[in-house]
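Protein in question filed below.

…
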Amino acid sequence: MILLLAGAGMTLRAQQLKFGHINSQELLRAMPENDSAQAQMQRFAQDLQNQLDELQVEYNKKLQDYQSQMDQLTDLIRKTKEEELMRLQKSIQDFQVAAQQEMQKKQQELMQPIIDKANKAIKEVARENGFIYIFDIASGSILYYSEKSVDILPLVKKKLGIE
């Protein structure tokens, strides 16, 4: 009898648990701050690309000059020009690696406040609506969720003032 009552009590408590889910990527795309961050990233990427293009133009010009004069150059001058071309080529490669790292750093810098704002809103909605777990279906680690799981994306968008 006691086991039956305890089991009924556990079933009742389990039925009261609220689970929800959200697609965080969809939320981030809907946030107006995301558009601004993407525009800033595009400008930043364009600036880096312009610098890379300048380096490439300089390299191509020097390579073309070298190739057009190669037969008339002494061994010493030819060797010096070849070393200069190799240094320029290495400089371009180093710039590309550094630019990629800077792009990642800039992306993190621009997106982290947006992610933090979204996470804060998700937590507030979860607390206000009595959810014990919110699963992010964008992460790909959720293999199944029941139709009883509540999609809180509309609630979070409302909290953030997003239509």
In short: Confidence is low (pLDDT under 50) at residues 1-12. The chain has one domain: 20-32+41-160. The longest strand covers residues 19-22.
